[in-house]
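haha ok so turns out i had the wrong file open the whole time. this is the CORRECT one, sorry everyone. sequence first:
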Amino acid sequence: MAAEASRKTVRGTVKAIKVAVKSTKALITLLIAGGWVSVMITLIVVVFGCAISMFGGGSNSKSYTPVSVEVRDYRPVIQQYAKEHGIPEYVDLIMAVMMQESGGQGLDPMQASECSYNTRYLHHAGSIVDPEYSINVGIQNLAACLKAANVQSPIDMDNIKLALQGYNYGNGYIAWAKEHYKGYSTANALEFSDLMAKKRGWSSYGDSNYVLNVLRYYPVGRAFTAGGNQVIVEIASAQVGNKGGQPYWSWYGFKSRIAWCACYVSWCADQCGYIDAGMGYTDDTADIRISQYESESRKPTGDTIDLFAKALHISPYAMCIHSFHCLEEIMHTLFALEDMYGLSVENIDGKICVSIPEPSCDESFVVSTFLEMWSDIAQEYREGRIGKENYDEWRYQFPYGKRPVPAQMPVNRKKRGRKPTKKQDDCAVNDLTKPTQ
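then structure:
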């Protein structure tokens, strides 16, 4: 029931995206409920290709490595036994384990022959000769490790590391690490390996780097567990460099690759637990949300816009540009500027020119100064003294760029109606001061 509800929520979100896909602003805001913050931060991560340290800075792995085709072919079987053993949400982790153990090759892909749950074959390496049975036993063993390590979710990385090392060393490691160190660390994994090797008279025992080796194949292996929006940031950043779109489209239910960002964002949200928490749009509310964003009755707060502008190194004003739906709207904006700042239009030698007369008030002075600044830097661009990148940077950062900005600068972002002209003001004053008859 919970899984079906999650899928219904995702489909409601995706339904909203389909309707609004032609509008970039709508697409961004409709992906996840409340999710302007979450999705925009995800987009920022992707745009800038953020490299955030794995496991809180303890990993040498710099990118996610997709599992092999052979491992992906086992996904239906893995899903079957993961559900049977009570860990259906850990399919991607199981695939990562299989990738490290065998790459999906051989008759014992989970390398489960020596596991205590193997009751059909001898307990020595390579004794299992049935891939499906190997998967069954391996998943049963991993489920026990996850339970022993008290893993709470697919992004509970501290405890997942403990469980994974226990899968490699045996469950005894989990109890030992909890008792002596309260959990996993690379150092205590090496210590346990040395202790067991000496105890058994072996040259080595297990793989002390097993956790790092497995998590390079785990899509959310680089996620922190700090909570809030930070989780989806880390999950998104872990996907930078992914090729082929796995596991996004297959998670949603497509049988082959679909290049659709909605699958990716919904998958990230699901990994965070956002969807199960009811943070997505349902079929019942998707249409309402669409209309709210399209009508701009629902939009990010000024503080949120400032936050994203800072992250993108642009002016917050650049994110508040009015969308013109027709040429007539542009004309009426020019009419409003005429009323507010004295904008005028003239035909000079066959060219239509728009200009601002001599400033008559503080605001007109500021606007006139801004236009002069624009004219100067545009001239530099036309003459090739600055490049397109420098020109765009100045525009997107205006008025907070490198060039000096007048001290008297309008900072109120609230929409204002038309102001009367000076002539209209004078007439009004005269009317008010006329002596009564």
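Confidence is low (pLDDT under 50) at residues 1-62, 222-228, 404-437.
again sry for the mixup
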